[in-house]
Amino acid sequence: MVGLIGENGAGKSSLLKVLSGTYQPDTGDILVGGQKRTFTNPAAAASAGIGVVHQEQSLVTNLSVAENILISTRATMSGNKDGKVRFGIYNWRKINDDAAEILERIGSTIDPKSKVEDLSFADRQMVEIAKALQITRQPGVQPIIVLDEPTSVLEDNDIQQLEHEVRRLKEIGSVIFVSHRLDEVMKFCDRICVMRNGEVVGERLTSEVNEDELFRLMTGRHAETTSRERKKSFSDSAVVLDLERLEAKGKFSGISLKVRSGEIHALVGTNHSGREEVCRAVFGAEEFDAGTVRYNGKVVSRPSLRGSAYGGIAYLPSERKVESMVAGMTVAENLQLTHRGEHASAIFVSPGARREKTKEWISKLSIRPPIPDADIASLSGGNQQKVVLAKWLEDPKLSLLILDHPTRGIDPGAREDVSKQVFAACEKGAAVLLIADTLEEAISLADTITVMRDGEITATFDLNSGSIPTHAELVGKMI
């Protein structure tokens, strides 16, 4: 298995799109099994045995899980040898049974008849992986499975099941594994290729390299610590967010917690634990049925998106492409979507002031390419995430920052940049409600950790007391 790593914008995704037939190269050759191949479209790549799980999901949301998997099957199988179509009539029993079988292989219990639009983001990722694994059923070719950030939205138990399947795939084909989690790359891969600025700058055997050297090859600099120095108690700090017995039927109940000025308060739990729904209810993206929300001491009976955005509350959701950015608009335009601030005079926006402020944030967060007028859709996923975060940090009235997986899909260097800006917001007095990407991240960043299971709080840990919970302790309260 070959690992492929690099910073956001290093060219990894573009290279994979060439390999999958989405892009065509200007020069150079692609050799599969020692033979030169040309892929003019994804179907041509699939026929050569190449299956790709892209970082950005490509499911048809108004179709069922089985139908989405069927699409990938029809792209790779010729004629009707798979038995799913006969005389133009679909054999839905076989389609659903085959989908269930491939999902079971990766440890998923998703109903094949479910609509994709009704699934969580993590469950959709499992469907993407199942689609790619269909390539292993194609006769006459040695499969090449490309996994582009396959674990970015998965929980520990899902990752363990995926690891088992990936190791099985190595026995029947080749695997290219792309990840920003260097510990995963070291664990899964035999050999690692490092890209920077569109070029391969290093290739190492996993047995002969460590994470520090990989970081240096990726970024050109040495890694810095992003853990906070826990020097103070927040007991005397102003309470920014106070939740009392908050409840949304079927999602969460009895949620009581406080988040204070300058504090990072992490919510941890498995998927469907209710942590995301609590964050969305606080911001006004979802309704709640009972309980009280107090913001800076004042009761907010029904939080609204407009009221939150203009009242100093920021929310970075997990699905940035759907809820946080507008493709087709520039980086500068996306940056000023919620807070025009000094960019505007009355109803008019000053393009010059907007460009200068955008350049400032591009420098602070190392956004690539550093072009204010670039279409945000042309940026890598990690750089899009930086723009979305900057959009909220731009607010001079920022008081509460709600972050749902803020470092998902971004490289270690970018994670440092994002963490520094979040710390800076805390230093200015903002409170942070965080859903971390991993338990290790929650432990390293947060002052307080609240654990949720089945919509309820099971434990709270004050990390400033000197007692740091272990990974095992947290997991024990989550499951």
Structure description:
This protein is α/β, with parallel strands linked by helices. The chain is built from 17 helices and 22 strands. It folds into two domains: 2-219, 3-Layer(aba) Sandwich (Rossmann fold); 239-478, P-loop containing nucleotide triphosphate hydrolases (Rossmann fold, 3-Layer(aba) Sandwich), CATH 3.40.50. It has helices at 12-19, 42-47, 65-76, 92-105, 121-133, 156-169, 182-188, 211-219, 275-283, 305-310, 320-323, 331-335, 351-365, 381-393, 412-427, 439-445, 471-478; strands spanning 2-6, 30-32, 35-37, 50-53, 85-86, 89-90, 144-148, 174-178, 191-196, 199-205, 239-248, 252-260, 264-268, 290-295, 298-299, 313-316, 344-345, 348-349, 400-404, 431-435, 448-453, 456-462. The protein has a six-stranded mixed β-sheet, with helices on both faces. Strands 16-19-20-13-21-22 form a six-stranded mixed β-sheet, with helices on both faces. It has a four-stranded antiparallel β-sheet with strand order 12-11-14-15, covered by helices on one side. The longest helix has 16 residues, at 412-427.
Short account of what is shown:
With 479 residues, this protein is α/β, with parallel strands linked by helices. 35% of the residues lie in helices and 22% in strands.
Q: If you average the pLDDT, what whole number results? A: 87
Per the principal axes of the C-alpha atoms, what is the gross shape?
globular
Main sheet overview = 6 strands, mixed
- Name the helicity range: 25-40%
CATH superfamily of the largest domain: P-loop containing nucleotide triphosphate hydrolases
- Specify Rg, calculated over alpha carbons: 23 Å
**Which strand order does the major sheet show?**
4-7-8-1-9-10
- N-C termini distance: 32 Å
What's the domain count? 2
Total DSSP E strands: 22
What are the low-pLDDT stretches, counting only 5+ consecutive residues below 50?
A: 76-80
At CATH level 2, the architecture of the largest domain is 3-Layer(aba) Sandwich
Protein name: Ribose transport system ATP-binding protein
Pfam family, one: ABC_tran
Domain ABC transporter: 2-222, 229-479
Keywords: ATP-binding, Membrane, Nucleotide-binding, Repeat, Sugar transport, Transport
